[in-house]
């Protein structure tokens, strides 16, 4: 029996909710933007991990340093803790997501691996157990615990991290008519380094702005008021300190907002930019602009996306 799980790209923070808001995205059409993990019974009596896909060559040379391998180790430990027996498995990671891209690349691998393992063992763990494990793995990679990529990648849609540690995340209504452009310029930005660039403390004014814009955004989501929601996609926590690390970001954002974008910002820790568009025509125009002006290497790409409402899923 072979099981294959796909886990989608996501926008960490969505600008207005640093570390507490994230949204999964999927390109319009039938392309899959995310990672795939395949699992089957091991051919020998030891587990293995092999890699394929466009960005496999960007991952650590030793598969045991891969986050997917760490997921296997954690999952096995949890199985043993719940007195279940562990079997050797062969894992294959199809690394379709660029690393250090701001598209939740490590989250895609973590989520696909843990969901595939859970399916293989016929669901010994529930969604909360899995989410805890996903958070642990993401923290190991980025240096601190944040669920804003793993939660939407796993569950789909827009997710708000809540203070109840048993619940962790709640789904928010998304604006289904809107398009989200994802423009990855083809350069790397380490999440850990981008987190280190942030101040340790913020002013009272920033604190008030953060609370007010996030609260207004959530209120607008529930009232289905896209104009108010997207007017509040403002980042006082990360963007002011990260934008200078991202070549062409400042002038690109200015152009996008002056030419029809409802909102734009850094996806996760960058360098990917996300752009919210109220219709397909604007999305196509701005996506052409980004292709011509924001891409900086041949591995860059631009996708017109919608919110991915499914999250991690079995694929054939
Ligand atoms: N399967 C994997 N997917 C992505 N990164 C991985 C994986 N396994 C190990 N890594 C390492 O984890 C780090 C991920 O970097 P990070 O900046 O957090 O990426 P991203 O923001 O795209 O998730 C890199 O050093 C990368 O080599
Ligand atoms: N909230 C995190 C999100 C990081 O997302 P990634 O896609 O860059 O890993 C942050 O902004 O540091």
From TrEMBL:
What are the residue boundaries of the GHMP kinase C-terminal domain, all occurrences included?
238-294
Look up the record and name the pathway of this protein.
Amino-acid biosynthesis; L-threonine biosynthesis; L-threonine from L-aspartate: step 4/5
Q: Kindly state which reaction or reactions the protein catalyses.
A: L-homoserine + ATP = O-phospho-L-homoserine + ADP + H(+)
A molecular-function term among this protein's GO annotations: homoserine kinase activity
Residue ranges annotated as transmembrane are none
Question: What does the record give as EC number?
Answer: 2.7.1.39
Its localization reads: Cytoplasm
Q: What Pfam families does the record tag this protein with?
A: GHMP_kinases_C (PF08544), GHMP_kinases_N (PF00288)
Keywords annotated in UniProt: Amino-acid biosynthesis, ATP-binding, Cytoplasm, Kinase, Nucleotide-binding, Threonine biosynthesis, Transferase
Q: In this protein, which residues make up the domain named GHMP kinase N-terminal?
A: 66-157
Q: What is its main location?
A: cytoplasm
Locate the residues binding ATP.
98-108
Q: What does this protein do?
A: Catalyzes the ATP-dependent phosphorylation of L-homoserine to L-homoserine phosphate.
Family designation:
Belongs to the GHMP kinase family. Homoserine kinase subfamily.
Any idea what this protein is called? Homoserine kinase
At the highest ranks, the source species' classification is: Bacteria, Pseudomonadati, Pseudomonadota, Gammaproteobacteria, Alteromonadales
């Amino acid at each position: 029996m072979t099981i294959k799980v796909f886990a989608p790209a996501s926008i960490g923070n969505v600008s207005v909710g640093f570390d507490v808001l994230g949204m999964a995205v999927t390109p319009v059409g039938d392309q899959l933007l995310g990672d795939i993990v395949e699992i089957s019974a091991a051919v020998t009596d030891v587990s293995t991990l092999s890699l394929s896909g466009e960005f496999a060559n960007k991952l650590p040379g030793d598969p045991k340093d891969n986050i997917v391998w760490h997921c296997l180790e954690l999952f096995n430990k949890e199985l043993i803790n719940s007195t279940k027996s562990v079997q050797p498995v062969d894992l294959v990671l199809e690394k379709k997501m660029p690393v250090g891209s701001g598209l939740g690349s490590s989250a895609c691998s973590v989520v696909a691996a843990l969901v595939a393992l859970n399916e293989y063992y016929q669901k010994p763990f529930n969604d909360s157990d899995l989410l805890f494990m996903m958070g642990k793995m993401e923290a190991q990679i980025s240096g601190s615990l944040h669920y804003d990529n793993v939660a939407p990648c796993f569950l789909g849609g827009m997710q708000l991290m809540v203070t109840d540690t048993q619940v962790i995340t709640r789904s928010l209504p998304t604006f289904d008519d809107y398009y989200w452009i994802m423009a990855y310029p083809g350069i790397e930005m380490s999440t850990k380094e981008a987190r280190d660039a942030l101040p340790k403390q913020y002013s009272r004014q920033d604190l008030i702005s953060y609370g007010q814009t996030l609260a207004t955004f959530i209120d607008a989501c529930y009232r289905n008021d896209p104009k108010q929601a997207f007017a509040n996609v403002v980042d006082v926590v990360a963007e002011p300190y990260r934008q200078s690390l991202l070549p062409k970001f400042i002038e690109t954002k200015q152009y996008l907002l002056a030419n029809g974008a409802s909102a734009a910002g850094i996806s996760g820790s960058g360098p990917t930019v996300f752009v919210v568009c109220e219709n397909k025509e604007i999305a196509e125009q701005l996506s052409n602009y980004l292709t011509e002006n924001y891409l900086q290497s041949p591995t860059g790409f631009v996708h017109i996306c919608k919110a991915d409402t499914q999250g991690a899923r079995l694929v054939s």
